[in-house]
Amino acid sequence: MADRPDPPDPILSSAGYLLLKAGVKMQAVIDETLAALDLTGRSFLVLTFVDSSDQLSQLELSRRLGLDPTIVGGLLDDLEDRGALTRRRDPADRRRHQLELTPKGRKLHAKAAAAVVAAESDFLAPLAVDDRDRLREMLVEVMRTRLPWLDA
Amino acid sequence: MADRPDPPDPILSSAGYLLLKAGVKMQAVIDETLAALDLTGRSFLVLTFVDSSDQLSQLELSRRLGLDPTIVGGLLDDLEDRGALTRRRDPADRRRHQLELTPKGRKLHAKAAAAVVAAESDFLAPLAVDDRDRLREMLVEVMRTRLPWLDA
DNA sequence: TATTGTTATACTCTATAACTATA
DNA sequence: TATAGTTATAGAGTATAACAATA
To answer: pTM of the full predicted structure?
Structure first.
């Protein structure tokens, strides 16, 4: 009934906890945005990685996404059914599938990427542009050892 | 097999996406830390909110946590079984339960809070202390309208 | 014998609704 | 009739392991 709850523990205002809450909320916002295109955060990442890699195998994709191969298999099933990507047997090793986006898949990815960028920008709107850059730099520092593509 | 994957889409290095990844990872790190005390992020939050509020009801707690009352009921069952908190009928309205930490529960919470603070500090170690403060300020800005206790 | 990918099974989490008791 | 809380059921998501094909 009270509109102003008791002031809770200071730990709920710490940098680490706010980072947690902000990140989880950012994830939810992006998922909602992608839902309009019948995508999830995961299926969007699949499109992103397949788009930027040549002849990716499912196992290699799973490793990069940090997901179980059976999960990735299901995501690929869906995207293949929708005509967004193709699985083709690797002639050199017929156990492997070479993954590739179709033109339709590339269009879908471009549309989704634009929507995600807009959602992120909206979420970070309370920060000035300079502050967003500063935030990005700090997060790169924190995540450098945890995300392989930041080590460039 | 390649140790250096193809450079992926720039969207994976954006402030918003890095915020997402950092937040989710922070959550995982905190959950791992709390597991050593047989707690989860959620049960720790239950302890935190009950500790800092007087005679909280289950429904009010659920509202503050943003969780379904049935979920909260299960969390309370566990903590009550472990002797960390008590449910007592509200004499003024016998439908309600007044939640309160036991001395054991307060000790558990203090221990867990110290562990969480240490885990956060460790996670943010790549940043100088000044930068951590700056990060915290920026996250307060972003989350001000989304976390009731930041509006102070 | 090891590896890629698929299929089948079981387990966990969560959401929904029905129920009891109090008001 | 409405509210606080519990219990029961069903569904989604995930992990595990067994399997087929290829190396």
So the answer is: 0.93
